[in-house]
Every structure is written in structure tokens, then in C-alpha cells.
Specification:
This protein is mainly α and about 110 residues long. It is about 75% helix and about 0% strand. It contains 3 helices and no strands. The protein has helices at about 5-40, 55-95, 100-105. Helix 1 (about 5-40) runs antiparallel to helix 2 (about 55-95). The longest helix is centred in the last third of the chain and has 43 residues, at about 55-95. The mean pLDDT is about 85.
Amino acid sequence: MVLNVPGLQHAAGLYYVNSTNKESRLCQHIAFNHRCRWYGLTPRNLAMKPIVSTQECHRIAAKVSWQFLLAHVEQCYGKLCRLETDLFFQKHQLEFVVSQQRLAII
């Protein structure tokens, strides 16, 4: 589909397709992180391991892990907002370069 478009149209089409893939991945990350928040779980990559094995250290590590999760959700929303803005401008740029029929295929 996109590969049949020569030159600049090809590059712009690929960039648009890659950006839409990034957007869908970010939406999946956000959905996963919301489920983790809902169930009170922290993903393994955001979990903080306590240095000393005491009850106080485990409590502090759990609190820090939770804060990491909340910060990660905010970061994903920021990336998604910037990516949606970028996609908006990419789509309008493609409308000038590619015909409406090919844009519908992309």
C-alpha cells in the first residue's frame, strides 16, 4: 500500500504509519498501567526492591514503586498528546502530497 508510493510520498507515508503504530502501543501501555493502578499492582520494571529487608523498607519501597507507576502514566499521557498533535499535522501534510484514495488506503 504505502510501498507503491514513490519518493517523498513514500517517506511521508511510512512516517505516518510508524507514528500510528506508536500511538496504538502507547494506548496499550496506558490501558495496562490503568489496570495495574485499579488492582493495586506495580509492574515488575517499576517495582523498587528494598535494600534492607525490614518492614519499614518494604513499606517505603512499595510507596516509591506506586509513585513510579503514577509518574509513568503521566509520562505516557504526555507522549500520547504530543504524538496525536504530530499525527494531525502529518495527516494534513499527506493530504497535499497523496491523493484522497491513497490516503484512505494508508
